[in-house]
Amino acid sequence: MSSAAAQAYARVANTTSSPRDIEAQALLTAANKLHAVMVDTNATYSQTFDALMFNRKLWSIFLSEAQRDSNPQPLEVRQNIANIGIFVLSHTAALQISPQREHFKPLIEINRNIAAGLSGRP
C-alpha cells in the first residue's frame, strides 16, 4: 500500500471511529512505544524520550479533559481519570530523569487496561 493510500485509509478510519476507539488506539500506541523501548536493550535515549513524551502528551490531554467543567462524564469518573493521570504524569517524568526499564511496566499496564476498557474487552 502506498504512503498516500495508507494516510487516506487512516483519515477514513479516524472519521468512522468513535471517540472511545480513538482514545483506546492512542493508549495502545503509547503502550507499544513504551514496551518497545523497555524490551530493547539497544534503545537510544532519543527513542526512550520520544516514547515517554508521547505518553506524557497523551495523558496531559486526558487530564485536561477530565478537569474541564463541560466534560459530560460524572464527577467521580473525572476524578478517577485525574488521579490516574497525575500518577502517570509523575511516573513518566521520573522515568525521563532516570529511565529504568523495569519501571516502564506500570505505565504500559495502565495504558493497556484502560484501552481494553474503552474497547469493551476484558
Could you name the key traits of this structure?
0% strand; single chain; 122 residues; mainly alpha; globular; 5 helices
Write up this protein:
With 122 residues, this protein is mainly alpha-helical. It is 79% helix and 0% strand. It is built from 5 helices and no strands. The protein has helices at 3-16, 19-39, 45-67, 75-97, 105-119. The protein is globular and about 45 Å long. 19% of the residues are buried.
The stretches of 5 or more residues where confidence is low (pLDDT under 50) are none
The counted number of beta strands is 0
Indicate the percent of residues in helices. over 70%
Strand content: under 5%
If helices are DSSP runs of H or I spanning 4 or more residues, what is the number of helices?
Answer: 5
Terminal CA distance = 33 Å
How would the global form be characterised? globular
Tell me the Rg in angstroms.
16 Å
- Which structural category do the helix and sheet elements fall into? mainly alpha
Order of helices and strands: HHHHH
